[in-house]
Write a structure and sequence with these properties.
Strand order of the largest sheet: 1-4
Mean pLDDT: 78
Order of helices and strands: HHHHEEEHHEHHHHHHHHHHHHH
Number of strands: 4
Low-confidence stretches: 1-24, 364-402, 676-680
Structural class: mainly alpha
Number of helices: 19
Strand content: under 5%
Shape: flat
């Protein structure tokens, strides 16, 4: 890493000594309105460093000069665009990809030696394929985008130089706004595997560099260096990216992962939601999602089982802790203690960090215990720490990680200092007590003879007095016990008498209550009996009246029925006679008709006039026959109506008889109390 990055580590991390000395060197405290609205970068420390720079502080001037040198080097390089990549040979370019889409190669996948074109690629965990940093992939450009914007935004914040501001604006517009060169708001083709169609959810980890881009944008906005239109366009782009993260198959798969992929996914969703102002989603991730990550990934002892299975387990643990640390920074900004918050069994991000420190301290390898966590007692050791962390290319990640590690180391050293001070004070106290004891021992040695005799005499006298006191105490104790026994006996007798009296009073009270209940029940029963008796008398009178009326109606209906029956019999007799006469007439007509037809057939041929007369007579006979048939039909209809009328009157009589029987039954039920099902 360059000197500016080393200086930033030593000056911006709150756990290092320089950061704690800035406030003491400031002439006046920094107000909140002069702090940038960043989350991962400590806004107060940035404001204090800017104030020291304006006051001409030597250390602050050195830091800013180094920062300017790094920014000047970036000004000499061209603006990077996602469209700068060219086409690739073979099967490395996925189907459906456009130049504006982000494209990268999965780091641990290599060409298959047994295949002519190397496809499909094979996995070699822990071994990075250098082809992933080739120019026709966007991984290197993404890292340069994030780091250059970090440096340019910091330089703009401290110096206000227009050149740095204009270059930062140009870079943001080229990558996120200009239609021809802007990146499509997704990472569908991140970490592709040639020869394999399955897209990797772990590819979303490469998008983590955009978290630091949002920090740079917030820092530029805090310095009033961005136009309002550009700020709005950037937030709209990140809003689209956040929607893709939460709805695409690749994003949903990353959220369901059981290792560091899920943590980096949560961190990005939280950071982008914070940047676009989605407070509801920020609160949801901070309070609901982080809980599940502790349960899924942190073991009871604080270890991370999913990362320990990898080829370089401790590197993956450190990488996962970096995500936990940055999640906690956003949690602190929202008022949720994600870092120290624990489950019921004690699992937390802080517990995982402590486990990592313990494993590093007991590790035999000096590189594992000192290279990453080292105490950084000398400047050479500090350079080693910064150089080791710089391999990730995540400046703000390094800041947060060193911050956490330095805080832990500082707290451990403070505890050790307090323990050492307590031990020193205790040793001094013991030395003073020892000296005093030696003086007392000398004095006692000189007076030992006389005091020994005097003590022996006093012991004899004290023994005699003690014997007398013991005898008196025994007598007094026996007397007191007897008095207490008498008092207890009297109290027991009084208690028994009082208990019997209370029992008798309670029995009298219970008997009175039972008597009152019986009286109440008797009054209720008498009232119900009187009511039922009155109802029975009323029902009896009603029954008698109804019975008389029903009898009259029945007699009348029976008379009507008899009359109707007689009329029906007369009608039937008349119908039979008419039917008999009609049958005879019909037979007579049929015989006449047959005679006429026979005579007509047998007659000799006559004139046309005779034929007309015969046809006229036949026509009249047919008309008479039809008239007789209509009379028969009318008689049949009359007979049917009379039959229906007789059936109606019979049905009505049956209903009247049933109604009478039902009413009589109801009245009898009322009289006998049949409603309750008991005989009165």
């Amino acid at each position: 890493m360059l000197a500016i990055e080393k200086a930033l580590f030593l000056s911006l991390c709150s756990g290092l000594s320089a950061g704690y000395q800035w406030r003491r060197r400031l002439a006046a405290p920094v107000s909140d309105d002069r702090m940038p609205p960043t989350v991962l970068l400590d806004g107060r420390q940035l404001a204090e460093l800017a104030a020291l720079y304006r006051q001409g502080d030597a250390e602050a001037l050195e830091i800013v000069r180094s920062l300017q040198a790094r920014a000047d080097a970036i000004l000499e390089q061209p603006v990077v665009r996602v469209t700068d990549k060219g086409p690739v040979a073979g099967g490395e370019s996925p189907n459906g990809e456009f130049p504006n889409d982000y494209r990268s190669l999965a780091k641990y996948w290599w060409p298959d030696p047994a295949s002519d074109d190397g496809a499909p690629y094979v996995r070699r965990d822990g071994e990075v394929n250098p082809a992933c940093y080739a120019d026709h992939f966007d991984a290197s450009r993404m890292v340069f985008l994030a780091e250059s914007l970090q440096v340019l935004s910091l330089a703009t914040w401290f110096t206000g130089d227009a050149a740095y501001r204009e270059r930062a604006v140009a870079q943001l517009e080229a990558w996120f706004v200009t239609p021809e060169s802007r990146q499509s708001a997704h990472f569908q083709f991140a970490q592709i595997i040639p020869g394999r169609s399955a897209l990797q959810p772990s590819g979303l980890i490469e998008a983590r560099h955009l978290i630091y881009v949002t920090e740079s944008i917030l820092l530029l906005e805090g310095a009033d260096a961005l136009p309002a239109s550009l700020s709005a366009a950037l937030r709209e782009w990140f809003r689209e990216l956040l929607a893709w993260f939460r709805t695409s198959d690749k994003g949903l798969a990353a959220g369901k992962a059981s290792n560091n992929v899920a943590l980096w996914y949560d961190l990005q969703c939280l950071a982008y939601a914070w940047f676009v102002g989605d407070d509801t989603l920020v609160q949801y991730i901070a309070t609901e999602v982080a809980v599940t990550r502790r349960e899924d990934q942190v073991d009871l002892d604080g270890s991370l089982p999913a990362e320990l299975d990898r080829a370089n387990p401790m590197d993956y643990v450190a990488f996962t802790l970096a995500a936990m640390s940055q999640l906690s920074r956003y949690g602190d900004a929202t008022g949720v203690p994600i870092w120290s918050q624990t489950d019921g069994d004690g699992r937390s991000f802080q517990r995982a960090h402590e486990w990592f420190i313990q494993q590093a301290e007991v590790k035999e390898s000096h590189e594992a215990s000192q290279g990453l966590l080292g105490e950084a007692r000398s400047s050479d050791q500090q350079d080693q720490v910064v150089s080791r962390l710089g391999e990730t290319g995540d400046l703000v990640l390094q800041l947060a990680m060193v911050n956490r590690l330095a805080d832990a180391r500082r707290r451990m050293l403070e505890v050790r200092d307090r323990q050492t001070k307590r031990k020193t004070v205790r040793i001094a106290e013991l030395e003073r007590e020892l000296a005093s004891s030696e003086k007392k021992l000398k004095t006692l040695t000189q007076k030992q003879g006389k005091e020994a005799e005097q003590i022996m005499e006093e012991n004899k006298q004290a023994s005699a007095r003690l014997e007398r006191l013991e005898k008196e105490l025994v007598k007094a104790r026996e007397a007191r016990i007897k008095e207490l026994q008498d008092v207890i006996h009297r109290q027991e007798e009084q208690a028994r008498d009082g208990e019997r009296q209370r029992e008798l009073q309670q029995q009298v009270k219970d008997q009175k209550e039972k008597l009152a209940q019986l009286e109440t029940r008797f009054r209720d029963a008498k009232r119900q009996f009187d009511t039922r008796l009155a109802e029975a008398e009323t029902a009896k009178s009603t029954f008698s009246t109804e019975n008389d009326r029903l009898e009259r109606e029945l007699k009348q209906q029976q008379g009507d029925y008899q009359k109707l029956k007689l009329a029906q019999d007369a009608d039937r007799q008349q119908f039979k006679e008419k039917e008999k006469r009609f049958g005879e007439l019909l037979k007579s007509n049929e015989k006449e008709l047959e005679k006429l037809l026979k005579a007509f057939r047998e007659r000799p041929k006559a004139s046309a006039v005779d034929d007309a007369k015969q046809r006229e007579e036949i026509k009249k006979l047919k008309q008479e026959l039809r008239g007789q048939q209509r009379k028969v039909a009318r008689l049949q209809e009359t007979a049917d109506r009379q039959k229906l009328r007789a059936d109606y009157f019979k049905e009505r009589s049956d209903k009247i008889l049933k109604s009478r029987s039902w009413r009589m039954t109801a009245v009898l039920r009322k009289l006998t109390g049949g409603d309750s099902g008991k005989k009165r």
